[in-house]
Input
Amino acid sequence: MRMICVNQNKETNVTTTTPRCVANWAHTQEQVLYAIYLLIGLVFIALIWTIASRRQRKSLRKGEIGFSLQCRTWARTSRTAAIINRPVQLLVSCAILGLTMSRLDSYDVTEWSYYTVLGLYTIAVVDDVVRFLASRYKILFCFSPVMLLELLCLASNFGVGFGSVKVIDGVETRTYLDFSIMRSVFMLRSYLEMEKHVPRATKGWMMVRLEIKILLMIMVGASIMFFLETLGELPLFTDNGFAHLYSCRDGSVTRHKSTDCSESTWSVMFAFYFTVVTLGTVGYGDNAPQTVPSRLLAIMFIVMGIILFSMEIDNLISLYKLRQIGNPPYTPKPDSKHVLIIGNPSFAQLSAILRELFHADHLSDTDTQQLEAVVLGNRKAKFTKPLIAKMKADPIFISRVTYIAGDATRSKDLERSLARDAKAVFVFPDKLTDDAVTEDAMNIMRVLATKRYVG
Output
């Protein structure tokens, strides 16, 4: 098997002319330079596209659509584009990450694994083209964080196979480390985009989806931390008193590490890192980042972790609430239709209404859709407790009746009830109320709000 570079610490039969695999900032700087070249080319294409689009727009007749808008419409609405952006990108990024991790296991780069990754990147580029077409502001898209990372991934992968051989400590070297280790960022993006199109009412999967999201976020953080720590300290922070100080045997402190001055001591950067870790109550563990970029990244993770933790706690509370009848939105069954019942009837009234609604006399031989009823009402309404008790006790009843806890004057609750898709909306008052004027006023408000929402 032909090798691009071999493990510098492993005895091998590969000819000595094969460069050694290392992780060094000299190679990474070259990869970043390649990415800048790619960025300049992409910005040039975006600039030409923008100028051509604006010129065409001036010559268009009324009702005509320019090529830029046509491309953007296709990229945003096409099912093919959505598949490329989401599941295809997710699988491709997962494969690239897997092959990169196998490379890190041996610290060798074989031609087979390299060209396989290169082929996968050609598929990933198709996703970039689709997203470029979907963006409204092409030049700003070029400078988006994820696009910049994509350029770094493409350029660094090119550098692994075709970058220059550098002599480091008298040995010819190539790098085995590139930005492909960060493909988990693209996996997370594709997953979050797919998650938006999955119904949130599926109780059993919500916890699994939350765990997958947390796992991908951990992978993102771990990959970036591994990349920075493997490369070692930035040349900018080497022999820099702000970043590192060392205590010597004679009691003095210096910024230059040597045999006599090898023990790390407090520096401004370490004090800053120590303070944030302490305030974040994270702890230091057995391993701690040693380089300035890694410590800055750890500080950012601590702050983001505190924020995201509070957000996910809110999601868990919402997940717990979904277990209660009335909280999940209405999810229609296949081949079904529904009517919406709102107002403030008593349970006896509501029972009579539902009995009449589902009576066999109203069934038609030509009607293949099952009729369902969605009851939207306040939890404090008279019918709520007996209705929930009935739904818990009668599985046949709950298969056709859905209770939504909410207020018909709120658009959000009408949306949860799928009011726009309802075949009819019935508004029923409480016939036994002591305050008929207030009851009528509330029902008028419900009717007007529903009519305004449905349009």
Q: What stands out?
A: The first helix runs from residue 25 to 59.
